[in-house]
Amino acid sequence: MVSRVIPVEDFDLVIFGGTGDLARRKILPGLFRRYLSGQMPDTSRIIGAARSDLDDAGYRDMVREAIAEFGGEEAKNTQELSAFIAQLHYVTVDAKGDGGWSELHEMIRFEAVNAFYFSVAPSLFGDLAERLHTYKIADKDSRVVVEKPFGRDLDTARELNATLAQHFDEKQIYRIDHYLGKETVQNLMAVRFGNILFEPLWNNHYVDHIEITVAETVGVGGRGAYYDKSGAMRDMVQNHLMQLLCLIAMEAPSVFDADAVRDEKLKVIRALQPVEPHHIVRGQYDRAGDEPSYREDAGNERSFTESFIAMRTEIANWRWAGVPFYLRTGKKLKARASEIVVVFKDLGHSIFPGDQERHRNILSIQLQPNEGMQLRVTIKEPGPGGMRLVDVPLDMTFAEALEGDNDTVDAYERLIMDVIRGNQTLFMRGDEVEAAWEWTDPIIQGWEARGDVPKLYDQGSAGPDDALLLMHREGRRWSQIKA
Ligand code: NAP
């Protein structure tokens, strides 16, 4: 199948924090891939903006090195890389100062789409937004992209929303959650709402339970001090897992547009039940030989922050009442794997004599490291010997059939192109983020008030044993964490 990449409109994209880790590892290599695919017009420009004293040539050298390091195979395409690099510019600005802003104003082409990526600490969002207006760099058509974390609780999220709202309309604000940019996440919506097969079964009559797992093999490493103030609940559950849960559980929007989709997601978050203390398991990875423990990585010997969390929650609405949603995420686990598993109910009665096995249809949706979708179905074991049943995965990935369209579009690239197109469907709206914190805050406050101490777990395991019990007590079992 032939790839159908449609170039976006001519744009000027300013990356505040253009010298930072995220810009070098994700944003700029991603933009280069979009350039290679023909999606980025030759006239478009990317303007790095940060305090470092660089000129265009210095910035271009820095980006060339970053793309060589993080850009994968494509970076070897030196001719194309040089052409892409020529579209880069740099301006020295301090978010808190006044130098450089007039120069930035001069650089912007107001006739093109203007987007401003705030790839800096959230504490600088207000300063950037204010100066973009003071210096008349942003107007009512400009877009701003903001990175996570979006607050650390409801109050700080409200503050951030209010700060941005002083200068930008909600239609201009793109809050990134890169999980939403994954191909499979969008495929999930296509499978749910583009087929008649699943929707009739997608409810508490037919679904036994749903699992969402985001497992990492890395520890907190160099981010220890930052992470220790956050923990798995704030860093992963409140945003990534919550977004996945919304897409799995939401009603069909009336149309596939940004607000219709986000309205439905918001209803899911608002229907989420508080989590009982005995339905939460928090953990910290233990030392393993020379591998430091969480507390050593965090540089805090008395830390009670969780590097792992598993929980059970429910959604109080007609579709999902009584269906447990099990969420878990953690660091230093046995494999890097993000997966959503929808486990359908037992048949209730088997007509096949001697068939003692429990056969269940299971839909598994992998987001990481490889994206894919399988439906486990029960069939007859081939060959003679009577009616023996066997469960086999029906692969719904279709990567080969769709080769060409299904290229390696990374979540960040896709989302940045959506910003240029003005499509907010895959970005979180302010009220969604606040509702997510509204659900998260009391859970965190609960364990803080109780003085809960996270359980230690072995590195390379599936987390603390108590997390297994969370499901065992209810006669269920987590899916294997496997890459
Ligand atoms: P970083 O490596 O520390 O980079 C910060 C950037 O901000 C640098 O370019 C820095 O450049 C610039 N900066 C700092 N103070 C500034 C000021 N006063 N005025 C203008 N520019 C200033 O951080 P990062 O890892 O790239 O993260 C950026 C944002 O993305 C953060 O909000 C982070 O939470 C989020 N994020 C990062 C990742 C990741 O993988 N790195 C993942 C998810 C979200 P100068 O020092 O030259 O000014």
From TrEMBL:
Instruction: Write out the catalytic residues in the record.
Output: H240 (proton acceptor)
* Gene Ontology CC: cytosol
The residues that hold substrate are H178, K182, E216, D235, K331
- What are the binding positions for NADP(+) in this chain? G17, G18, T19, G20, D21, L22, A23, R24, R51, K148
Q: What UniProt keywords are attached to this protein's entry?
A: Carbohydrate metabolism, Glucose metabolism, NADP, Oxidoreductase
Q: Which NCBIfam families match?
A: zwf
Q: Please give the biological process terms from Gene Ontology that the record holds.
A: glucose metabolic process; pentose-phosphate shunt, oxidative branch
- The protein depicted here goes by the name Glucose-6-phosphate 1-dehydrogenase
Origin organism lineage: Bacteria, Pseudomonadati, Pseudomonadota, Alphaproteobacteria, Rhodobacterales
- Report a single Gene Ontology molecular function: glucose-6-phosphate dehydrogenase activity
Q: Which PANTHER family match?
A: GLUCOSE-6-PHOSPHATE 1-DEHYDROGENASE, GLUCOSE-6-PHOSPHATE 1-DEHYDROGENASE G6PD
The protein's enzyme class: oxidoreductase
Pfam families linked to this entry: G6PD_C (PF02781), G6PD_N (PF00479)
Q: Which domain of life is it from?
A: Bacteria
Q: In which pathway does it act?
A: Carbohydrate degradation; pentose phosphate pathway; D-ribulose 5-phosphate from D-glucose 6-phosphate (oxidative stage): step 1/3
Q: What family is this protein classified in?
A: Belongs to the glucose-6-phosphate dehydrogenase family.
As recorded in UniProt, its EC number(s) are 1.1.1.49
Domain called Glucose-6-phosphate dehydrogenase NAD-binding: residue spans: 14-187
* Ranges where the Glucose-6-phosphate dehydrogenase C-terminal domain occurs: 189-478
Q: What functional role does this protein have?
A: Catalyzes the oxidation of glucose 6-phosphate to 6-phosphogluconolactone.
